[in-house]
Structure formats: C-alpha cells, structure tokens
Automatic annotation (TrEMBL):
InterPro entries: RpiR-like_SIS (IPR035472), SIS_dom (IPR001347), SIS_dom_sf (IPR046348), SIS_GmhA/DiaA_subfam (IPR050099). Gene3D superfamilies: Glucose-6-phosphate isomerase like protein, domain 1. Residues 33-216 form the SIS domain. Keywords: Isomerase. PROSITE patterns: SIS. PANTHER family: PHOSPHOHEPTOSE ISOMERASE, SEDOHEPTULOSE 7-PHOSPHATE ISOMERASE / DNAA INITIATOR-ASSOCIATING FACTOR FOR REPLICATION INITIATION. This is Sugar isomerase domain-containing protein. It holds the Pfam family SIS_2. GO terms for biological process: carbohydrate derivative metabolic process. One of its GO terms (molecular function) is isomerase activity. NCBIfam families: PRK02947.1. The keyword Coiled coil does not apply.
Length: 224
C-alpha cells in the first residue's frame, strides 16, 4: 500500500478515532451553543490560516445553521498570500482589533479552530472572548499543541483557554505520510477531520434545538 491508498486508509483511521473519542466533547459544546441561542445570544466561528476553512464549513453552508456569525479576516486567510497569513497570525495585539470590530458579548459562544493552537491571534482571541463573558470551544490537535510551545505573549495554547476542547486527532505537523525520497511528510488531516467534527457539532446543535421545541433556521442549498 502506497501513495493515495495509504493516505486515504490512514486518514480514515484518524477520522474514525476522532469520531469514537470526541462525541462527548461535541455534545457538551452543542449544549453550550443551544443554551446561548435559546437565550438570544450568538454563535460565532473563527480560524486563521487553513483553519479558517473550518469556520467557513460552519458558516453559510447548505444544511447548516443560518444563525452563525463568522470572523473572516482576509489577511488571516490564504488568498492574500501564505507568508502574509503566517506572519499575521503570529502578531500579538491583532486579536484585540478583531474583537473591537466584531461585537462578541457576554453569553455568546465562539468556536475557534487552530490546528497547532500556538499562534498569538487565536490564543489572544480566545482570551479576549473569555474576558467579554463569552464561552470558547476550541477545535485543535492536542498531540500537536501539547508537543510545542506557545507563540502568544502569555504563553498559553488554545486548549488552555477553552471551555470545551474538541481534538481533531492529528499528529504534530499534520501530514501523515512518509515517502522515500521526500524530505517531508505529506497528506494533512486537520481540514478533513475538522470539517467532519464541525458538521457533527452542527447536527448535534440542530438535534438539541428540535428536542427543546425550537425550529432551527437551516440553510437550504440554492442549487436544489
């Protein structure tokens, strides 16, 4: 087994382990979101670098919740350049600007995705969210995060700032496959598994909302 076949088999193993181990965290996280929504508060999503894709997976998605607000800062995404995004997500103080222009308030819940959980922006964003009285759900790789140091000035990693942690099960460095002749591993899993976990969270939120007698506001595909 090699190449694409090896990657798909090993990536599915990561996904299976995440599915088996993270249901409890997802249910707790969904409970926080539902409680916030029933109280008239807001569910937010945020991520930097490739992790912004997890925020987009929850926001504006067919079959997803319409009542979600996303913090999608162009400089922290990839379409303005990989180097720019990488440098900005390490920049102390930038999270304060994002929090100033996005009105996250007490009682809200914020899902923050960061595979490494070590860069200044997601960590400081989480700390600012907590300071405002909102709750944090972290979607991260615990194996990666616990094997490295923080780049945030306070020394925290994302999982250390969160009310609930959902672990994507990825390995340090994200890429799974070693290929003879290649100096680095290839085949990342954080986006694939992160999207699955984010969708599972959405489904659990909808399940709990309906159980509470609410009619969820679900987006229907415009292509149907």
């Amino acid at each position: 087994m090699a190449g694409a076949e090896e990657y798909m088999e090993k990536a599915l193993d990561v996904a299976r382990r995440a599915a088996e181990t993270q249901v409890g965290a997802i249910r707790v996280a969904a409970g926080l979101v539902v409680e916030a929504m029933l109280a008239g508060r807001v569910f937010w999503v945020f991520g930097t670098g490739h992790s912004h894709l997890i925020a987009e997976e929850v926001y504006g998605r067919a079959g997803g919740l319409a009542d979600v607000r996303a913090v999608l800062e162009p400089g922290l995404m990839l379409h303005e350049g990989l180097q720019k995004s990488s440098l900005l997500e390490r920049l102390p103080g930038l999270a304060d600007v994002l929090l100033e222009i996005n009105e996250i308030a007490a009682g809200d819940v914020v899902l923050i995705a960061s595979n490494s959980g070590r860069n200044a922006v997601p960590v400081e964003f989480a700390l600012g969210v907590r300071k405002r009285g909102a709750l944090v759900i972290a979607l991260t790789s615990m194996a990666h995060s616990t094997s490295t140091t923080s780049r945030a000035p306070g020394g925290q990693r994302l999982f250390e700032t969160a009310d609930v942690v959902i672990d994507n099960g990825g390995i340090p460095g994200d890429a799974l496959i070693e290929i003879p002749g290649s100096p680095e591993r290839t085949g990342a899993t954080s986006t694939m598994v992160g999207a699955m976990l984010a969708q599972a969270l959405t489904v659990e939120i909808v399940t709990k909302l309906t159980a509470a007698g609410q009619t969820p506001n679900i987006l229907r595909s415009q292509n149907v």
